[in-house]
Amino acid sequence: MKISIVVTQEEHFKYAQEICDTIESSALLRGTGIAKRTPEYIQKKMANGDAMIALADGKFAGFCYIESWQHGKFVAHSGLIVHPDYRSHGLAKKIKSKVFDYSLKRFPDAKIFGITTGLAVMKINSELGYKPVPFSELTTDPSFWAGCKTCTNFPILQSKENKMCLCTGMLYDPKEKQKTPPRHPFNEAVLNRLKKIKQALFLNKILSLFV
């Protein structure tokens, strides 16, 4: 199976709706919160060359886009998705790695970050050199956090004043000397435990409101 991963252009607009649908259906299947995207927003990213798409014989296989915050001080990778027909082939890691390298070239001084509930994404990030960090080390740009409004967990984020949620924050700082393997190797058991602790804490907080 030959899959090409390329920087997007206007010719890829036709895939925008399918990308949005795949992102949403994947989140529903996992039972996780997600910030919804519109086809128009995805097309804007495509037109600006701020995204990469994976294609298999002209069919949509995967996608990820770039956002910059605070005048390029921070960069985030969002909407990483692989079509169900092309999963279990390591494609998500290939897309993420290409987007990561592309970001380093376009924004060499930017800190690259992300927030996610997905263990697979955390593992990929860790292998690239990201480390788990508190939200206080991420961008303070209100526009970024406003993007979480369509997520089912947004009330939790609001109640914590954008300092904590069910997502885990991860950060890559190009100014830190990187090692191979990464300084912060992925430990699925630890991150899974952290996720469960977060969920329990927030559940107890919500239940206390009704007591």
TrEMBL record:
Nucleotide-binding in keyword set: no
Keyword list, A-Z: Acyltransferase, Transferase
EC number: 2.3.1.-
InterPro entries membership: Acyl_CoA_acyltransferase, GNAT_dom
PROSITE patterns linked: GNAT
Ranges where the N-acetyltransferase domain occurs: 11-151
Any Pfam family hit: Acetyltransf_1
Listed GO MF terms: acyltransferase activity
UniProt keyword annotation of Ion transport present: no
Highest taxon in the source lineage: Bacteria
Record's protein name: GNAT family N-acetyltransferase
Organism: Flavobacterium ginsenosidimutans
